Amino acid sequence: MASRSFIVVVSFLAGAAVVALVPDVSIRLQRAAGILPGKTVAQGDSKPSQGEPRPLVIAMDDERIKLADIALTKVEAGTVARRLTVPGTIIPDADRVAHVSVKLSGTVAELRKKIGDDVERGEILAVLESREVADAKSEYLAARLANELQQDLAARDKALWEGRAVPELQYIKSRNAAAQTEMRFNIARQKLLALGVEANEIAGLPQSPDALLRSQNVRAPISGRLAERKVELGTAVGRDNLETELFVIVDLSRVWVELSVSSGDLPLVKEGQSVRVSARGLSETATGKVVFVSPLLDKETRTARVVAALDNTGGHWRPGSFVTTAIALSERRVDVVVPASAVQNVDGGKAVFVRTKDGFEKRNVVAGEQDGQTIEIVSGVAVGESIAVSNTFSLKAELAKPRDED
Description:
Elongation Factor Tu (Ef-tu), domain 3; 6-stranded antiparallel barrel; elongated; disordered N terminus
């Protein structure tokens, strides 16, 4: 009995040596001999039931996923829309452009901002020297002093009249004079406001040094960025065919997208519809909203002007850039949407790669409507599952490699 066992062991070892040395021997025999460890290409160790192929799994741990630069995302519900694609141009929001002009004659004595600087509303951009503003300030100070004196006289005459010390006629004359000086004072103040002098500057004039009487501050009417500066130091500005516009300030935190929509598509476009904006060479996309649909058609192009407002806090969208827009004509809620980059064509069908504890499982899916960079999934994956969304072609390539025979 011992000799027979010895013969069986020797025969087994000899067979193992043969299959290890001969390359054409089947892989199954090598595994049986214990030479080649089994590689899992199907989920689970048990055989699938007849007619139900096992899902293919690409073995990959977290470290390999990181090295392969494969990004993951959770499957979620979302919306898909029927969209109208229209080319467009980024332009500044007309409500956020300010042309800073002067309202008096003078010369530029000081420039505090240059092109490209960010400015805040009320910040001083330049200082002018003007005889006109000096005259207006002097007139205001004189009217203020005269009004204060006349008001004191009117108050005194009123007290005397009430005490029967002066006749009523004197009090009436004093009161009329006080009303006139107050009117001249208010007119002088309004003149300074019309010239662009701030109310707080007017209030501080009595305490200001005489040298500042001829100075006029030019302030920013809005916050934004200085896009143009049209004057230099010493430039004469104001009336008589002189330059009146000094600066142009643009706030680009929000911009407009100007579209030209054909007359045939115009009935489909409504104010309030969402607009997806993208540009060649720019990875970012943004979503805006239609704020204006022109009731007029261009007589030459037979198109109408449509404007969409777009948030530009990040500064990605520069005026003058050409963009591609997709206006959402109708939207509907769907149970499952995935990024288009997650879906691959495999063996004539659509598939995604679902993250499992062993790697990625190739999952056949039925795709519905595509909305730009997202695709509706009718069946195949469920909300909450984690799928690969970048470099999925490398996973598809792994499936195409020859696999071990079962």
